[in-house]
Amino acid sequence: MPSTSPRRLAVVVHPTRPVDEALGALDRWAGRHGVDLVQLEVDGVQREVAAPGKAEPGDLVVALGGDGTVLSALRAAASDAPVLGVACGSLGALSAVSGDELLEALDRFGAGDWTVRSLPALAVRASGAPDDWAVNDFVVVRRGSGQVVAEVAVDGELYVRLAGDGLAVATPIGSSAYSMAAGGPLLAANTPAFVCTPVAMHGGSAPPLVVPAGASLTVEVHVRYAGFHVEIDGHRRPLEATSFRLTRQENKVELVTFSPSGAALGALRPRGLITDSPRVLARDDRAQRTGRRGQLP
Length: 297
Fold this sequence. Notes:
This protein has helices at about 20-35, 65-75, 100-110, 180, 280-295, and strands at about 10-15, 35-40, 50-55, 60-65, 85, 95-100, 115-125, 130-135, 135-140, 150-155, 155-170, 195-200, 210, 215-220, 230, 235, 245-255. By secondary structure, the chain is of the alpha/beta class.
């Protein structure tokens, strides 16, 4: 990346986590480099920490919080500016640095010592509703005690008619969230595909489906007395539609990373989402203990 300071710093903050130290670092860095600091408007509750603004080309968007904050920042920035995820209080698969590493990260960004990680999105077309998109996942979930009944097809070919808690359709980055919790596969970052995972399907058989990048997935929901909810990137959408068409949209958003590969698999282990087999861990422990005894006089 070329060496250049951002035109502005555009911040998105978690509504409740302590971010004062990180905000102070942002403010100091902006002052030293003559860069304005603005705050982006996002869905949900937020606290005011800077003058309001919208993401523009040349900005660096800084998300202070966890993965949910980064997702909100990515949606607010879209393709206009890259997003630097800063973990404040917890580890995140989308975060590049922790809060105490922020000043160094800003210096590296200004020096061009960073890697852009372009992420695809799910384009969501719903009957009778404005088009939308998801960075992480699109979820249809039951409302109340009823079940979701839906037909799922790929390029017009019926895959399954299901009844259950719902289904989650996820991008590769979103495959480690709701989809994986429901038993779906983990897609490596650059996999040219997306995944559809039934959630608590009531009988029948339909394993999680990996959908090629160029295909379209359609979901036809049959409305029952309890109804259903639609969630996009964890936020509920007041959609009255029952027919949805999902396709993969390339290079929708950009993350800042300082990893040469830009891959995110390594972030899953510290979070405990990926853990080693107990037998392997026992072998490591045995080798460590044996090594220590060998060093005793």
